[in-house]
Amino acid sequence: MVERFCKSTNPTPEQGKPTFHLEPKVDQVMGEPMDHNDAHQLTHDDSYQFQWWALSTIQAMPLGGQKGKKEGKKGTDRDIDGVINFIDGPKGKLSQVLVQGKSGNVNSGLIRDLRGVVESDNAAIGVFITLEPPTSEMKKEAVSAGFYTSPIYHQNTPACRSFASKTS
Predict the structure, then answer these.
(1) Dist. CA 110–CA 138, nearest whole Å
(2) Which member of 54, 73, 97, 134 has the greatest number of CB atoms within 10 A?
(3) Rounded Cα–Cα distance for residues 166 and 54 (Å)
(4) Contact by Cβ (8 Å): 125, 161
């Protein structure tokens, strides 16, 4: 959170000289949120900025964005905010992780929707990032999606995951 300080040039009666009083005033968050309150402030200021920040925490590319940029397109995207492309297969098959960021009002229906998009797009994994801890129903819905098994590493990974974003 950014604080700005205002100066007061009112002279004190004792000295007759100007003094400077530093009074913190809270502005909107600029840059990376440093704690949970900053992340809430960011979503209040601009929900798209929150989504793009959430994507950056797992190095996902914003949908319609460019690599290395923390912004993407706005609009109908079937609630998918970002993507992580990776090679997974003996013939260099391109696979995807679809990512959705949501700051509040989360429920198991959102995980169900994400799961549906992951399945219809033939993506490997779906990741849901939120400010709020996932509810037990959200966790159950994510677990019910099963596992993605890597053809190269022969490792099982949950097909749908829900995370509460953490700040440094």
Answers:
(1) 8
(2) 54
(3) 9
(4) yes
What's the distance, CA 148 to chain centroid? 22
CA geometry: angle at 51 spanning 102 and 41, to 5°? Answer: 85
- Residue 55 structure tokens: 């994507």
User: For residues 100 and 81, is the Cβ–Cβ distance under 8 A?
Assistant: yes
- Torsion-angle region of 140 (φ positive above 0: left; ψ -120 to 50: alpha; else: beta): alpha
Q: Both tokens of residue 59?
A: 């190095």
Please name each of the domains of the chain with its CATH number: 59-164 (3.40.1560)
What pTM did the predictor assign?
A: 0.72
* Range list of β-strands (E), 80-149: 82-87, 94-102, 125-130, 147-149
Q: pLDDT per residue over 10-64, tens digit each?
A: 344 555 544 444 444 444 555 678 777 887 888 788 877 888 888 888 889 888 7
